[in-house]
Design a protein that fits this description.
Rossmann fold, Alpha-Beta Plaits, 6-stranded mixed beta sheet, 7 helices, globular, binds ribulose-5-phosphate, Ribose-5-phosphate isomerase A, NagB/RpiA_transferase-like
Length: about 230
């Protein structure tokens, strides 16, 4: 199976997984990226059977609207039934690196009000140690160089994602060369740098459930059964 087929398969699995939540009052949080796009396209078959969605990017909002799914401003919504999104890396604790598509800040905001976060990924995203994928950090443009110098002091090699402006009007630094073992602590440390809007580590709010597409089918991993099942995944 190609990576794209695995993404499609896991998106369908996510829909099956959240099916009991699809009810007339449900508002679903929707992530960004190619895996999330497959999920949106699958979700479209239930259009009209749930209240609507909150989008984690302008691109996702646009795709939802194309399927005639109502998109709510997050300020109008107190909580979400579930948040479904992809990831760039995931470890056994279901801590993630996200932001390859540049939507990390809104993704983290939307995930923060979800009752449950279902991460959908193909097996290439599963890692022992986070950091092989360069960690995206969203920065206020005037602080870009100052933040970059601080990231170097923390042991990273930040590269400016030139030509990319986030939906919030900010810049992105992709930090290479990290081996992130204490993800919660590192997430907090990065967020404390003045000029950082947020970083792509989802450790303080990891995924609750991981649906991982593998050549043997989609595997379901939750925080509770992580250690028991980890051997099957890595
Ligand atoms: O965090 C993200 C976007 O900001 C995506 O979830 C992540 O980049 C994975 O993307 P894809 O599903 O295209 O592999």
């Amino acid at each position: 199976m190609t990576q794209d087929e695995l993404k499609q398969q896991v998106a369908q699995a996510a829909l099956d997984y959240i099916k009991p939540e699809i009810q007339s009052d449900a508002i679903i949080g929707v992530g960004t990226g190619s895996t999330a796009n497959y999920f949106i396209d699958a979700l479209a078959q239930y259009q009209g059977q749930f209240k609507g969605a909150v989008a984690s990017s302008e691109a996702t909002a646009e795709r939802l609207k194309q399927h005639h799914i109502d998109v709510f401003d997050m300020n109008e919504v107190e909580s979400l039934t579930v948040y479904v999104d992809g990831a760039d890396e995931v470890n056994k604790q279901l801590e993630l690196i996200k932001g390859g598509g540049g939507a990390l800040t809104r993704e983290k905001i939307v995930a923060s009000i979800a009752k449950s976060f279902v991460c959908i990924a193909d097996e290439s995203k599963a890692v022992e140690v986070l950091g092989g994928f360069a960690l995206p950090v969203e920065v206020i443009p005037m602080a870009r160089a100052a933040v970059a110098r601080k990231l170097v002091k923390l042991g990273g090699q930040p590269i400016y994602r030139e030509g990319v402006v986030t939906d919030n009007g900010n810049d992105i630094l992709d930090v290479h060369g990290l081996k992130i073992t204490e993800a919660k602590q590192f997430e907090a440390e990065l967020n404390a740098i003045v000029g950082v809007v947020t970083n792509g580590l989802f450790a303080q709010r990891p995924a609750d459930v991981l649906l991982l597409a593998t050549s043997e089918g989609v595997k379901t991993l939750s925080v509770i059964n992580t250690s028991a099942s980890a051997g099957e995944f890595y």
